[in-house]
Design a protein that fits this description.
364 residues; mainly alpha; two-stranded antiparallel sheet; 13 helices; elongated; disordered C terminus
Length: 364
């Protein structure tokens, strides 16, 4: 092992990698802080976070496989030489950790009013509407939970397969790999590139639809878009890597540039309309034209797209109105109400009321 573990000293490559590690950390901090300070992750597409997390994980494991022989040399190298040799691996691990942090913050600061269906039931006799928070999850929140689990199982699966192959297919030296490892590394690299290409498509579509910047950080993209060129260069100069290791970062740089241009255009549009990044009117704004905030537009689109939420709304409204003495005619829109008998004594509605109705179930 020691005969094939001669450390390579390249001052230019090491300086570039160190600069990129610092730059990557600094570039992600504005996005982390923006979510935390706003206490909201509105504006993100959960598909963007899913594809970004899986793409960065695949890229990270690709370079681990490609440089596994170099990583094993740390057993016979000094600490300084070891860190110098695996700096490229640390660089891509850092990218994965910082991006997954965005997903974690997205789930932590997911707007509470967008998690569950909330209804304002109009009441008779000039009574104020009754606000009801139901336990029914909105479609966006359900999707975010499912995709978060997909990210977890994806990283667990590819880590298991990667280290299983590394354990069962030892490399003859620090620079060569078995055919199985080479195929797996190529799969990881190509899948990372494809996921990167797909990663920005849902975010670009979401941003184009709402025409608002939301929680996206323009400073982060201003740093990362040109930084993608240096990122590709720093990876390509590392020993043991090939195009499968850096292709995903090249694709991501191009797609992120498109998103950056869109956000700059929409930021200018918001300023012209007197709106902030979430579609709310700015303080002192004289804008008198109608507008829709990001949360309102998101909630409205979800409600329009979810027949379950519409059915819950109808059922709850029927229940509340019946509790306040408003006659509700049973039918398809009020399936939870039992029709009265032929004598018109309303016994069916009394029985429904005794059972507590949907409202009692919501209060559990």
């Amino acid at each position: 092992m020691s005969s094939t573990c001669e450390p390579e000293h390249n001052a230019a490559t090491n300086a570039l990698t160190a600069f990129m590690c610092v730059g990557i950390t600094i570039s992600y901090l504005p996005q982390h802080w923006r979510i935390i300070s706003a206490k909201s992750s509105e504006g993100f597409s959960p598909w963007f976070l899913l594809l970004g997390s899986t793409s960065s994980a695949s890229g990270m494991l690709n370079i681990i496989v490609m440089q596994w022989g170099i990583i094993k040399c740390c057993r016979v190298l000094s600490i300084g030489s070891c860190l110098e040799s695996i700096a490229g691996v640390f660089q891509l691990v850092l990218v994965w950790v910082l991006f997954v942090m965005i997903l974690v913050l997205y789930m932590i600061y997911y707007p509470p009013h967008l998690k569950y269906v909330e209804l304002d039931i109009p009441l008779p006799n000039d009574l104020p509407p009754q606000h009801i928070k139901t336990p029914v999850k909105r479609e966006g929140w359900k999707l975010s939970i499912v995709l978060s689990w997909v990210v977890f199982f994806h990283i667990a699966f590819i880590i298991f397969v990667t280290f299983l192959l590394l354990a069962t297919n030892p490399s003859p030296d620090a620079t060569q790999r078995s055919r199985q490892l080479q195929l797996w590394a190529t799969f990881l690299g190509v899948s990372a590139g494809l996921l990167s290409a797909l990663q920005y498509a849902p975010q670009i579509a979401h941003t184009a639809r709402v025409k608002l910047v939301g929680a996206l950080s323009i400073p982060m993209m201003l740093l990362q878009t040109p930084g993608a060129v240096l990122m590709v260069l720093s990876i390509a100069l590392r020993p043991g890597t090939n195009w499968t290791t850096w292709i995903s970062y090249a694709v991501a740089g191009v797609m992120q540039g498109i998103l950056l241009v869109m956000c700059i255009i929409f930021r200018a549009r918001q300023h012209k309309l007197g709106l902030d990044d979430f579609g709310r009117p700015l303080a002192g704004s004289s804008a008198d034209h109608p507008h829709l905030s990001l949360s309102e537009s998101g909630a409205r689109s979800e409600e329009e797209a979810s027949p379950v939420e519409a059915a819950v709304g109808d059922a709850v409204e029927s229940d509340v109105r019946s509790e306040h003495g408003v006659d509700v005619v049973p039918g398809e829109e009020t399936p939870l109400l039992v029709k009265s008998n032929g004598n018109g004594d309303g016994a069916g509605m009394v029985r429904d009321k005794e059972r507590g109705g949907v409202l009692a179930w919501f209060r559990r």
